[in-house]
Amino acid sequence: MASFVLFKHPCVLLIMLLLFLGASNAQRYRNMSSGSSLTPLGRNTSWLSPSGEFAFGFYPLPTNSSVFLLAIWFVKISSKTIVWYANGDNPVEAGSKVVLTTDGRFSLEDSTGSEVWNAGITNASYAAMLDTGNFMLVDSQGSPRWQSFRAPSDTMLPSQVLDLGSQLSAHLMDDDYSSGRFTLRVQIDGNLVLYTVAAPSAFQYDAYWATSTVGNGSQLVFKESGIYFDQRDNTTVAISSSGVQSTQDFYQRATLDADGVFRHYIHPRNGSTVGVWSDGWTSVAFQPPDICQVTNSVAGSGACGFNSYCRFDEDQHVDCECPPQYSFLDADRKYRGCKPDFAAQSCEADASETQELYEFTVMTNVDWPSSDYEQYGSIDEEQCREECLADCFCAVATYGDGNCNKKRLPLSIGRTGSYGNKKVLIKVPKGNRSESVPPCPIRQNKGKRSWILPGSLLLGAAVFVLLAAILVVTYCTCSRRPRELQPASSLSALGLRPFTYDELREASDGFSEELGRGGSSVVYKGFLQDAARTCVAIKKLDKVFPETQKEFMNEVETIARTYHKNLVRLLGFCYEGAERLLVYEYMSKGSLMGFLFADGGRPEWNRRIPIALGIARGLQYLHEECFSQVIHCDIKPQNILLDDNFTARISDFGLAKLLRTDQTRTKTDIRGTKGYVAPEWFKNAGITTKVDVYGFGVVLLEIVCCRRNVRPEAQSEEESVLAYWVNDCFRDGRLELVVEGDDQAISDMKRVERLVKVALWCIQEDPSLRPTMQKVTQMLDGSTAVPVPPDPSSYISSIQ
């Protein structure tokens, strides 16, 4: 419990009045007198404001509850959101304490007694946690000596003011409060500027957003009506507006988030909304509107890390992605960037060797404009490719309108956008050689030709002996190994972990917990016997016919060569005797089927939209960004899984058809699931990626409407088939019917219309009318306009 003082002297009453001169409204408060202290564990861990809205004290880190921040946070909401912290770079353990000493110092000490942080003042007599969220240290005369509003971390609260020279600093990640990569600064020249910085040194790169104002008396002010930059000449720049939401009805905060965006958030005070700031709490405004497009420093990595590119996604947050054949250095810390999954090109190789080893993967609507080091004009695309291929420094080339730009690693300030006819050529190894080092040619030393003949003889003899030994070992090994195990070794070379059947039986507790089943397989939940007890999904093929074996090999070969955030990742396999099993990462939120149609009611609109976009991006990768084009052939909600963050992950490549790069059409048996099958399956026509586009269109309608594709119990055929019904609603101008009862969607009808139009394009009967998945992605994220789709002439063949 905090110490309380009984105020009986008139001077003390005067001190009370002076304490609240800086607040917008008079309020009750509690004093913590000199000698008061807090510890991370025990009775005194925090001090509350009078109303209990805010707390000051020790807050356990989200990722490690045994270490603590000295912080201020919201108390009466489930997320307990932090609004100020002191020791983000140096969290403390149990045994630490913060104390207001008898000589008026306020400091944080760790468990060894060493000082971690102090307020930089003396002669403080009291501390007070106010209902505004401001924590104050006050002297005996009632004058504030220090206050958190004047020494902010990453957040502003209503009534708070940032004067000249003040700044907000983002922390590194949502769950990591160490120094981040962005600052918002009120400069002494009167300009309000957002900078990227180099963590942890805080070296400042170029600005990526500014008000471009000048004035010695400028201030950033958080008023009830919003956040404004007031200048000395009485002019005001509106940074954000909360509209009609008042501080009496809504909690508010403005935070420089870890992704470099300054956002203004609100939340109802009645507590009816449960969630976190980015979920139950609503962002009402932010600056800049798209950080991916405005970061353009001459140095640094930009919004994302080196060799990655930035996309501002549907939920208004930065999404960092890697180019093909690159992967994140740390998938949990994407800001660190991406690395090539192959050895760098040797500068000693000649042109013929380079052409044999490397080729280009083509991307569009992505660029790294600050990584150019050489430019050519008036050349064709083939010449551009040759120039980059012959240059060992060239990792990427862009070509458009006769201009060729070469880029070297590390690529920086990557972003997506509309770049017209510009192609991005990513240099990658041929034939999936990413795991082998390109050979360096041996150069003869002309000054030592006399050694060539005897050296060659010795080398030949050594090679002969070595080959003989290899043949003997190989014969002995192969004679003892069943022939059916040979394919497993080739799969191991793809980086997959081979499991024995007994290992997987033990991991799944005798295959006891079933997650789902298909026509020839059952999926079980399991836990690997590693240090982390990794949870996995084990797919066990229960009928080992020749067709199933072929399907097994096809699935393994396909998935092992793919990696994307919207695909389920294959971790390993078992190929033992008659047993064929696949081990996948476990998706904790289940399938899109269960998410959309569970008994708990319709999922939130703002959560459904990123799922649709994630599916589209995953299919775009399979169709256009893989070494070999992949057609899934069975896109449906059951084959879309959701991870911990509700990110869509496409699963089950068992029905996929792997094509060679020069192949665009194939004929195969009818596959897929009723209601999602494209009409061309029934016409003995060539099957292309457009069958996946059709399936995606049907799934997109289900996501928008939260209604199953086929509902046999409906009274009419038009009502029983979702595509019929949505198309009729769209043509009749009654689109609000498809989201009836969904208040969030009804308030976002412009996006509803865009998604419905995209879906109707995808389910056109003529495959040539359907867009590519790249075009679908662009229409979904709003970077490309969506024209009115033709009225589909027939859906009936796809559901019979």
Tell me what you see in this structure.
Residues 509-786 form the Protein kinase domain. One of its GO terms (biological process) is response to other organism. This is Receptor-like serine/threonine-protein kinase. It is an enzyme of class 2 (transferase). It catalyses: L-threonyl-[protein] + ATP = O-phospho-L-threonyl-[protein] + ADP + H(+); L-seryl-[protein] + ATP = O-phospho-L-seryl-[protein] + ADP + H(+). With 800 residues, the chain is an alpha+beta fold. It has 5 domains: 1-151, Bulb-type lectin domain (Agglutinin, subunit A, Orthogonal Prism), CATH 2.90.10.10; 155-289, Orthogonal Prism (Agglutinin, subunit A), CATH 2.90.10; 303-439, Hepatocyte Growth Factor; 486-585, 2-Layer Sandwich (Phosphorylase Kinase, domain 1), CATH 3.30.200.20; 592-798, Transferase(Phosphotransferase), domain 1. It is 21% helix and 28% strand. The protein is built from 16 helices and 46 strands. Strands 37-41-42-40-39-38 form a 6-stranded mixed beta sheet, with helices on both faces. Strands 3, 4, 5, 6 and 7 form a 5-stranded antiparallel beta sheet that branches. A hairpin with a 5-residue loop joins strand 26 (309-312) and strand 27. The chain is globular and about 90 Å long. 39% of the residues are buried. Mean pLDDT is 79; it is low at 1-29, 272-279, 432-459, 472-489, 654-672 and 793-800.
